[in-house]
Structure formats: C-alpha cells, structure tokens
Amino acid sequence: MTVSDLRTDQGVKEFDSFISDKSYVQGYVPSQADIAVLEGFAKPPTDQTPHARRWYNHIKSFSDAERKNLPGDKKAPAGFNIQSSGAPATCSLPAKPSKPAADDDDDVDLFGSDEEEDAEAAKIREERLKAYSEKKSKKPVLIAKSSVLLDVKPWDDETDMAEMEKNVRTIVMDGLVWGASKLVPLAYGIKKLQIMCVVEDEKVSIDELVEKIQDFEDFVQSVDIAAFNKI
To answer: Which of these, 3, 112, 156, 226, could form a disulfide with 149 (CB 3.0-4.6 Å)?
Structure first.
C-alpha cells in the first residue's frame, strides 16, 4: 500500500487505512520505523482518522531516551513518501502543539489538554507492552502423567471378581482415568484383577488410590503396583 505525503489530509487518510489492523508500522513491537513515520506528520491526526490518531498518540508517548533504544533502522517502510533519516526532516514534530487562535473555529483543539492526551497515550503504551510481554512469555504447560498397572488380589476363589472390578472402577478422582483390565491366574483357581490407569502426578496420589481400593474389604485382600511408567 502506498502512503503519500503525511503532511496532507489525503496522506493521513491513507495511513489511517494502513494502520487500522496493526499496532506498529513494522512487526509487533515499536521500532525506529515508527519514529520515522511519526516525524512525517505535520500535525496530530483528528477524530476523522481514529486509527492514525491511536497510533500517533502511542508512539508520541515514548520519551527521547526510549525512542533511541527502539530496534531497527530509522527508515519508513516501502511505499511511504517520507524523507530518509539521512535528510533533514521537512516537518519535525513540535514538542507541544501550538495553541489555536481563539477566533479560528477550524483550528480549535478537539482532543482535550496535552496532559490528558499524554496520559491516554501512556496508558495505551503500557497496555500494549504488557500484552506483548505476556504473549512472549506464555509457554504451553506440560502436564506430568503416569501409567500405572495395579494387581488387585481377592481373598479366595469364591470372590466375585466382576463385582470387585465394578467397585474399583467406582473410584473417581480428579486426574484419574481407568483403562483396560484382565484376570490373571494366581494359584489354586484364584485369579487376580490386573487393571490399568493413567493419573496426573500433581493431582493423584498412588498411595491414596491404593488405600481407596483396599477399603473394599469384602473383595480385596491386597493391592500391588505391577508397573509404573512416566508418560
């Protein structure tokens, strides 16, 4: 997109369209390119170009020291009709806007005091920098899980193994998922229940889980951990 002379109303309108879906003229952080474009304005944008005004107030809120520390080269993006940083600026940005004449309705300041504008711009800058910092530092959290194979032994060969498994599976804990099971022969016709489960390490204590299973005293004689693997 081409942005003509920002000293003209047409150039400001073109820039308003350009910056409507962006925070900065290049990339996702403020840079020297923003300063180069800022210095191309002859006066602050008006409410008729809200996106340009939002960007202008934000970039203007940076102090001289902060501007010097911004990354990149002080050069406007391609398509901007702005003098390069090596040439003298044709319209440098004044420290404060000149006060309008009392009898000139066309130049009346519609944007409040400088202090209000600076406070608004500073607030926007802090919010942008905070959002960028949070986005950059945010990393996916890995949930530690373990696969556990339990051996649940009955009292004798007369124990109802189907009912015992049914009772075991009634145990519900946040972070616990029951898996496949099978009956494994022990001796003298006695079989043990071998059942798999997956647990979230921070939420489920294996010792507590074993105790809950052993609470079914009519069916369960003992519980052993046959296998324990981190996922």
So the answer is: 226
CA distance 147 to 8: 68
Taking only the tens place, the pLDDT of each residue in 38-55 is: 988 989 999 999 999 999
Q: Report the alpha-carbon distance of residue 129 to residue 119 in Å, rounded.
A: 15
Say if 82 falls within a structural domain. Answer: no
Domain that residue 165 falls in = 145-230
pLDDT score of 110 more than 50: yes
- % pLDDT > 70, the chain: 82
Asked if residue 99 is part of any domain, the answer here is no
Domain end marker among 27, 45, 69: 69
Q: CB of 40 within 8 A of CB of 80?
A: yes
Number of domains the chain contains: 2
Query: How far apart are alpha carbons 135 and 62 in whole angstroms?
Result: 21
Total Cβ atoms within 10 A of residue 36: 23
More confident call, 73 vs 108: 73
Asked if residue 206 is part of any domain, the answer here is yes
User: Does residue 116 fall inside a structural domain?
Assistant: no
